[in-house]
Hints:
- Helices cover 0% and strands 40% of the residues.
- The protein is mainly β.
- The strands form 2 sheets. A 3-stranded antiparallel beta sheet has the order 4-3-5, with no helix packed on it. The chain has a two-stranded antiparallel sheet with strand order 1-2.
Amino acid sequence: YTDLFKTSDNQPVMTITLDNGFTIEATPEHKWFVRTQTSKQVYSSTVIKKTSELIEGDKLIKFSLEPVTN
């Protein structure tokens, strides 16, 4: 169980489009676990990137979390 808390108001959001067509909206400062690619088809480590730092081809690490509802 994780407590959720509000960190700011009226922040812009960016839209991330996944390779399966789903989209996620997140603030530019939201942090993601990203698997890094050292060569074709070889992923070696995990880094943390902000939404604003993501580039096409980054691989987000999948988490199974319950949806947040208000």
